[in-house]
Amino acid sequence: FLATCSPDLLDELKRELTSRNLEVVIKPEGDYLGIHFVHDTKRGIILECRRARRLQAALQVIEEVCKSRRFSRRKTFRLTGNLGFDPLMQHPVDRAVADAIRSATGSVGATWDEEVSLDAPEFDSLRELLAWSRELCGGGDPCRHCSTTDGAAMGDCLVLCVESDASLTGGGYIMKVSKSSSSDQGMVVLRKDCWRWSKSQQSWHSNRRELFGVLRALQAAADLVSSCKQVCNRKGIVFKVNLLCDNKPSVNWLERSSAGAVSRSKALERRAISRLLGSCAEECQVIRTMVPGSTVEVRHVQGSLNSEADYLSRVFERPCLRSDGTTTTLAASLLCGKGDPSPSTLTEVVKDGSTGVADNFSYITRRDLDAHEAVMVADSVRALRCSSSKDDGTNEDSRASRLSIAERVAADSWDYGLLRWRIEIIQKVLRTWRASCSKKRRVDPIVSDGYSPEGGLIHSAQSLLLPPRRKALLRPGSAVCVEDGLLYLELGRSSGHPFRQFYVPREAVYLRQLLLRDAHRRSGHGGREATISFMDAFYLPGGCREARSVIFKCLPCRLNKATRGRLSGPQLRKNEEELLLNFPPYWSVDIDVLYFGEGHKVLVAVCRATGHCSMTRLSSEDGPGLLQALRRIQLMRGGLKWIYSDQAPYFSSPKFRVALSVELGSELRLLASEAPWEAGRSNRIHGLGLTVLRPLLRSNRGRLPEDANEFDLMLEFLMYTLNSRPLGRCYEDPFGHDYPLTPDLLVFGYERRVGPLKLAQGKHPCLPLRDAVNFRKQYLREYWRKLRVKVLDAISSKASNVGAKRWIPTLGEPVLVIRQKARKSDLGSALAHIDALLEGKRALVVFPSGRKQVESFGNICPFINIQSSLNE
Fold first, then answer.
1. Which positions fall inside the Integrase catalytic domain (predicted)?
2. Do domains 152-313 and 465-553 have the same CATH topology?
């Protein structure tokens, strides 16, 4: 056996070993798991990774693969085993690169020794990873890590500082420990880690990624505390864990102690965030219980103070050159599967007489460029391929169809800023190529000497003008002038000085569209005049007409200005007359959930024929809770053959529909959204119920009763009040009594007498069966028909002209769905497509997210398919 300890404890260790008759060699240094450690009186424990031999073995594999341009799984796993071995957890980048190489080559080849070509397009990321591994294996000083000079004494408090961060490509954390405070002085790095996101994780919301990084950091801290449990409990040592994060929402969520902290939030992926917060709470509980007295504190720090964790989260933003000449980030290249389209060849050959210049654009993507700039540079150079064809200008048709570099770059650019940036790069590249050629070939006017990026852009666009057209523009008396080969529109100022605008010809179609789109966006999606006013540096002949076309094709403008055209009126047929005379009450009902506040929710069922309502308490707002409440209503009232509901998730789920059919024998029918004419009398029941409820709760300051029996009694009284409300004029029965028509009379044929005042009237003769039929006929004759006529008149007043052509949507047609604005800045409509046509002038629409919803024809308006015009 071999034992080691610090020099100050050497005598005590010898004495203890001698007392136990143990012969153990004591040395001040030793090896464990490939790590060499030495006890130093001044510097504490010095740990040496001794990675030189492993890195040298990994470098030999890299050189062998790069030289032969072939590799196998066995070679890459040998490389990653040597590169990623890090017991001290001090080299996170090496471990992350090793994991990425294993991920890229884990399924390569049928066997472990089958070799595959490294030059295949799907191994773009592997080539960059090998180059990165060569840099990491390049050597340097021996790797040494020092601990604190003195250990933890009895009753000490160890400060554990954990910093975490997450970016779009990955996440990382760093863990430090100190005995005094969380300042950087005296802090010892215990662990570093970084990782990259998978395809599904990269689509997460930023708050969810940040919380996942916090959870990984807390798990590492909990593992450390658990490993020190026995020593800390014996010596009375406690931990003070300071968790630092630069994401304010995550910090706010972690600081809240209530379980419903996220339920009040409108953040995306709320359920996933709740689960992550629950896991974080469990890890904090582990830290507090393993070592009693330990605390966990969450702090928000500025991003500039979280630089170490931020660097670890962005290690995979390294540029990666693809086979098609474009440059992307290494994280994006690793996420490209084998099923993705393979890139084209990398080499671009430019021939000029006897000189052949083969350039692979590698000098453009230098290591000092960040990933975003590298992508833009490579994309700009790639655009030069489109203009490599030689054109002598003798063929007028080919000259008219020729596109300049300015046009080709404008066709692939989003805004003017990106276009100008690419033009500046192309100018430098073309001038460099022209200087290296032995023969000066004709190049695009964009590289003419002395031109700024704007001047080169306009010169290239004006080169599309035919000589007769250019001559006509420069006729005497014209407002167009020429200077340094560029055409300007010369205007005057109030001060008397000239004002010039670049002349953009009609032939530069893509450039004009880009300028108009950019101006329209910068004007805040204003009108034609506002769009034109934001192009004060350019003159576009016929620009007003093209501006109208751009505004017409603008999707946000169409969504914001969509209105109900009433091109196809709604259908009002509900079969109320047939339901009243031929079916029992509650055969067809509308259901909805009414929220009273304080966690009390009730299910409201309203008979579509009589307007009679029933309420029952909800145990939970989900499928099983709703099914239990509907079963209770069916036992009380019967019926419930046809159930109409809105498109809430718990109503529209297939499981709920099947459960209704199996357990109740009911058929669920979904109502179109934003179509109140399709519902029965349930639209006003909620408002009436709350209006009646407020005076009842006034004595209790608006608070609902906590006792379940009192709450049920309140619901019964509320139902009695709503079902006794008058629906129309009075009805005189054969005995000479006058009655206002109420839902109770339509259902039961008699009036319920409740309270001493009602019972004081004494006995009242009634024949419920006969009276119910008479009440219903009177209601249909005197009230219902007139109400339908008024509703039709109101709808017809808002509809289009009678002579206008009615619009009926077709399958697959894009439409705008009018929706209620959730907030003031929200759009008033959403884009969707017709998925199916339903009866009753309704359609099933599908949104870009894949969600399907039933809509009435009156709630959708046509959206002209502008895809063909956009491609012109």
1. 580-751
2. no
Predicted pLDDT of residue 174: 95
CA gap 559, 829 in Å, rounded: 5
CA 481-487-491 angle, 5° bins? 50
Where would I find the H helices in 383-452?
396-401, 405-411, 416-436
CB atoms within 10 A of CB 638: 12
First to last CA, the chain: 83
Instruction: Identify the CATH assignment for 465-553 out of 1.10.1760, 1.10.10, 1.20.120, 1.10.340.
Output: 1.10.340
Residue 93 is predicted with a pLDDT of 93
Structure tokens at 257: 């102690």
Q: Is 453 helix (H, G, I), strand (E, B) or coil?
A: helix
pLDDT at 352 (0 to 100): 34
Question: What sign results for the dihedral spanned by CA atoms 683, 685, 686, 687?
Answer: positive
Q: Are 566 and 858 in contact (CB under 8 A)?
A: yes
Class of domain 152-313: alpha beta
Question: Hunting for tokens 């949104």 — which residue is that?
Answer: 847
H helical segments located in 583-707: 623-637, 649-652, 654-659, 682-696
Measured in degrees and rounded to the nearest 5, phi and psi for residue 311 equal -65, -40
**547 neighbors 541 (Cβ within 8 angstroms):** no
Q: Is 379 helix (H, G, I), strand (E, B) or coil?
A: helix
Pick the CATH number of 577-782 from 3.30.420.10, 1.10.1740.10, 3.40.50.2300, 3.30.565.10: 3.30.420.10
Which candidate, 813, 837, 793, 829, places its Cα nearest to that of 565? 829
- Give pLDDT, residue 733: 59
The pLDDT score that the predictor gives to residue 564 is 58
CA 172 – CA 196 distance, rounded (Å)? 9
Judge contact between 101 and 129, C-beta under 8 A: yes
d(CA 445, CA 456): 7
Tell me what pLDDT residue 243 has.
93
Stated pTM of the model: 0.43
Task: Provide CB contacts within 8 A for 630, sequence distance 6+.
Answer: 591, 603, 605, 640, 643, 660, 664, 666
Q: Rounded distance, CA 389 to CA 361, Å?
A: 20
φ, ψ for residue 712 (rounded to 5)?
-65, -40
Calpha distance 584→604 (Å, rounded)? 19
Residues of the chain with pLDDT under 70: 1-2, 41-43, 139-141, 148-152, 180-185, 257-268, 337-403, 434-450, 493-496, 561-575, 674, 676-677, 680, 728-739, 755, 757-767, 792, 795-806, 820-828, 864-872
- Scanning the structure block, which residue is given the tokens 């030069």? 384
List, in sequence order, every beta strand (DSSP E) within 63-107.
Answer: 70-71
Cα three-residue angle 46-48-51, rounded to 5 degrees: 170
- Rg (C-alpha) for the chain, rounded Å, is 39
CATH class of 814-870: mainly beta
Specify the DSSP element, H or E, that contains 593.
Answer: strand 588-597
Domain boundaries, the chain: 152-313, 347-366+380-463, 465-553, 577-782, 814-870
Instruction: 734-737: list long-range contacts, CB under 8 Å, 24+ apart.
Output: 735/765, 737/764
Distance, in Å, from the CA atom of 815 to the CA atom of 834, rounded to the nearest integer, reads 7
Q: According to the 3-state scheme, what is the secondary structure of 736-780?
A: CCEEECCHHHHHHCCCCCCCHHHHCCCCCCCCHHHHHHHHHHHHH
Among the listed residues 135, 65, 66, the one whose alpha carbon sits nearest the alpha carbon of residue 97: 135
CA distance 555 to 562: 11
pLDDT value for 856: 82
d(CA 419, CA 453) in angstroms, rounded, equals 9
Quickly list H helices, 155-228. Answer: 199-202, 206-227
Amino acid at 2: L
